Amino acid sequence: MVSKLHVVLLVLCALSLAQAQLRLFDLRASKLPSDLLGTADGYVKVFCGETSLGKTAVRKDTANPWWEEEFNYFHALENDEMKLEVYDNDLLFDDQLGVCQRQLQPGTHQHDCFLKKGGTLHYSYTLG
């Protein structure tokens, strides 16, 4: 019985060590495209795997927004996919400007992602 308990404890410890905290920060964009309504009103939706971590505030009338929000997720795993969807907020329908996807790796990383409809999303993350 004692040996089975040790095995269970080892498995539980291994599972808890495999999970890490994801911290996404320093979200900003450059050269977001304008539309018929004028300069972009950008925001970003953040996902880790299938889990929505939330979205940033809308930055109105700027092609080069910077978002103060940080996103934390305590159940991230190495190689989980992080997805950042960039939108232009409009009156009726929000236009998706692009999607950035990346497999998470341990450590702190900075990335630039070129958006399908123009512009670049810059961001940093730490997994650890």
Largest beta-sheet details: 5 strands, antiparallel
- The radius of gyration is 18 Å
CATH superfamily: C2 domain
Tell me the number of structural domains. 1
Question: Which word captures the global form?
Answer: elongated
Describe the protein in words:
The chain has 128 residues and is mainly β. The chain has a single domain, classed as C2 domain (Immunoglobulin-like). The chain is built from 1 helix and 9 strands. The chain has one helix spanning 2-18; strands at 19-30, 42-48, 51-55, 66-67, 71-77, 81-88, 95-103, 107-114, 120-127. The strands form 2 sheets. Strands 1, 4, 5, 8 and 9 form a 5-stranded antiparallel beta sheet that branches. The longest helix is centred in the first third of the chain and has 17 residues, at 2-18. The radius of gyration is 18 Å and the shape is elongated. It starts with a helix and ends with a strand.
Short précis:
This protein is mainly β. It has one helix at residues 2-18, and strands spanning 19-30, 42-48, 51-55, 66-67, 71-77, 81-88, 95-103, 107-114, 120-127.
Topology of this protein?
Blueprint (H helix, E strand, L loop, with lengths): L1 H17 E12 L11 E7 L2 E5 L10 E2 L3 E7 L3 E8 L6 E9 L3 E8 L5 E8 L1
Antiparallel strand pairs: 1-4, 1-5, 1-9, 2-3, 2-6, 6-7, 8-9
Key terms:
elongated; single chain; 5-stranded antiparallel sheet; Immunoglobulin-like; 128 residues; mainly beta
